[in-house]
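Bug #77: duplicate submission created two jobs. Keeping one. Sequence:
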Amino acid sequence: MQRCEISGKGITFGNQISHSHRLTGRVWKPNLQPVTVVINGQTLKIKVCTKVLKTIKGASETELMQILKANANTLSPRITKALSK
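Kept job's structure:
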């Protein structure tokens, strides 16, 4: 399942409404991009949405740690494990 490993943003479901107002199911997927980050000296390849990518792009390692701690409740288990080391 597609999910941002930092923010937790995932797939959203809804209906597509035609001109005649017929409803068909549709899916909105997050724009995920693969990124390599260094957490506590450990290099991880993670998938993040573009909104998070903008936030972490110019961030130093200490700023990245603050961003990760601010999003502690939505982090993926892999990142949580790397933070605890």
